[in-house]
Write a structure and sequence with these properties.
The complex is a heterodimer of chains A (65) and B (499). Chain A has 65 residues and is α+β, with helices and mostly antiparallel strands. Chain A contains four helices and two strands; from the N terminus they run ααβαβα. Chain B has a six-stranded parallel beta sheet with strand order 15-16-14-17-18-19, sandwiched between helices. In chain B, strands 10-9-11-12-13 form a five-stranded parallel beta sheet, with helices on both faces. A three-stranded antiparallel beta sheet of chain B has the order 1-3-2, with helices on both faces. The chains are: A alpha+beta (65), B alpha/beta (499).
Chain lengths: 65, 499
């Protein structure tokens, strides 16, 4: 596929045309299984943001933090 | 309260729920330990531990604190269990991904380290999942949200944002997806091919995709949309996006759509979109009445029907009901069917099959026309969805930990009113390593007069558990194995009406 055509694709179309590469946030086992299947996956060492306060976490995410 | 209770709080220490479940199990199995819980200090988890008498009313743990609570027969056992738990807590973080592996602390840092990333798989607790999904979309990542307990308003705003950005937002509560052959979360290793799937249900998508794959067909992509996508409030935003994607996808030659019956406005939009497609479609709205579909679409009445229509040939060819019935150990008697399911959509399909056969059916997750369990239903068939919230509160889903079924299974096996016990096994990535072995041990321990057991295995030869190996272990234990959930329901009906 040409670069110009690739540029015209949406992010969702590029996902389907592959290859899939994953940012895993949460259950670590999912990242391990993806790697076993030969899929590029990076696991985020996630902890509840904003001291575990969901409302504050939602506000921060809307601010792009 | 009898026994010796030890409670400890680790401030600002996070481990995911599956890792904590494994460690809790290890500690609970230690000598002298009555009960052990390692949980994050969310309000719902604290309530569970308070109800179990593991913590007092004054426990001040916060959601980002880890609570370790052990009840043991004596102080020495409690202390040994505490030491083992603390050692275990420090082990997984060091071991995962290699001790020297650098681990990003945020989605932004992860994208910096893996610029080719195009999908975020999000399975953090529901309270925080929308915030992480928003960050992912803004980094240009498609999202698969495994987390549930996400509000409708958040779901709607995330799906709108995804649409504006040309990204796919699968979920919340999206248990399975296959993108270009890659199994994500609870999914199976499938043959590649031209059949695309759009599913609002995890186990429905798994059953249809596995039946197709095991019968020699192949899957291009299976896109999960989340259980609420086709409700009026969400308006099928992800379903419509997935329909556009698969319609334009050169690798997809036909599409199967699986859902509970959608809201009628949403159903109209879906049908109109199918009419604008040149590809053949199969529509499986489980429990819906007859739909007015365009000529390029056919309606499937069951998951099996959906697989067969997509394939163009029957699944489970050569299966002999009578021979399978003879292979089931246990006493033959007429009576009711007890269905104990880990898959919600498999439980729904079972209700539809039994209801269509004229049986009286009750369920904790009833399809239209089926009642909830209550008084006066003693002789009725009962279909239980063990993945429902009432059974999974504070514990893993039965596909990860089948032991939630054990007590009900033992009771049903020895209940003289039960003619047949009907169960599903769902294997694949993310699922229990050997559900057949677990089930076989319980059936083997039941007395010789127990009710016969009928099972189906949702999975493929390529799965880590290997479908054929699981089926063989069941057959060895005298459990009748059917090639699909639909076949299993038919076999259960035959056994329940035999004299």
């Amino acid at each position: 596929m040409g670069e110009a055509q690739d540029e015209a694709m949406t992010g969702a179309q590029r996902l389907l045309s592959g290859p899939v590469a994953v940012v895993n946030v949460g259950l670590e086992g999912f990242a391990a299984e993806l790697r076993q299947n030969g899929v590029e996956a990076i696991h985020v060492d996630w902890t509840p943001p904003a001291g575990g306060d969901p409302k504050m976490a939602a506000i921060l995410s809307k601010l792009g933090v | 309260m009898s026994g010796h209770v030890v409670t400890e709080i680790r401030r600002g220490f996070y481990l995911d729920s599956v890792a904590l479940m494994r460690l809790s199990r290890e500690v609970a199995a230690m000598e002298g330990v009555v009960e052990a819980a390692l949980m994050m200090g969310s309000p719902s988890n604290l309530a569970i531990m308070r109800d179990a008498g593991l913590i007092g009313p004054d426990c001040d743990a916060r959601p980002n604190d880890l609570v370790l609570a052990i009840k043991a027969r004596d102080a020495a056992s409690a202390a040994a269990a505490r030491d083992a738990a603390l050692a275990g807590l420090d082990r997984p973080k060091a071991a995962a991904g290699g001790a020297d592996a650098w681990r990003p602390r945020s989605i932004a840092a992860a994208v910096g380290a893996l610029p080719a990333a195009n999908l975020a798989l999000i399975s953090v607790p529901g309270d925080f999942a929308a915030a992480e999904a928003r960050k992912a979309l803004r980094r240009g990542l498609n999202v698969m949200m495994f987390s549930d307990n996400v509000g409708l308003a958040d779901e709607l705003s995330l799906k709108r944002e995804a649409r504006e950005r040309g990204l796919l937002m699968m979920g919340p509560d999206c248990g399975t997806a296959i993108i270009g052959g890659v199994p994500l979360a609870f999914a199976n290793r499938l043959r590649r091919g031209g059949i695309g799937i759009i599913g609002a249900s995890g186990t429905g998508t798994q059953e249809v995709s596995c039946l197709i794959s095991e019968a020699g067909g192949g899957i291009s992509h299976a896109i999960g949309v989340g259980g609420r996508d086709l409700k009026r409030e969400i308006g099928g935003l992800t379903t419509m996006a997935a329909m556009d994607l698969l319609d334009a996808d050169p690798a997809t030659t036909s599409v199967v759509l699986i859902s509970k019956p959608p809201h009628e406005e949403v159903a109209r939009k879906v049908v109109a979109r199918i009419a604008a497609s040149a590809k053949p479609w199969v529509v499986c709205f489980l429990g819906a009445g007859k739909l007015a579909l365009p000529p390029n679409a056919r309606q499937a009445a069951s998951l099996r029907d959906a697989a067969e229509l997509a394939l163009g040939r029957p699944v489970g060819a050569g299966f002999d009901n009578a021979a399978a019935a003879r292979g089931a150990s246990g006493a033959r008697r007429a009576g009711r069917i007890e269905g104990l399911f880990s898959g919600g959509t498999l439980a729904a399909e079972a209700q539809l099959v039994l209801r269509a056969a004229g049986r009286q059916v009750v369920s904790n997750a009833p399809v239209p026309g089926v009642g909830e369990p209550g008084q006066g239903d003693a002789g009725h068939d009962r279909i239980i969805d063990l993945g429902d919230d009432e059974y999974t509160r504070g514990r893993p889903h039965p596909m990860i930990d089948p032991s939630v079924r054990d007590d009900m299974l033992r009771a049903a096996l020895n209940d003289p009113a039960v003619a047949v016990v009907l169960v599903d096994l769902v294997i694949g990535f993310g699922a229990h390593p050997d559900p057949a072995g677990h089930l076989a041990a319980i059936v083997a321990a039941a007395g010789p007069g127990h009710a016969p057991v009928v099972a189906s295995v949702t999975g493929t030869a390529g799965d880590p558990q290997d479908r054929a190996r699981q089926a063989a272990a069941l057959a060895q234990a005298g459990i009748a194995v059917a090639p699909s959930n639909h076949h299993a329901c038919g076999l259960a009906l035959a056994l329940a009406t035999a004299r």
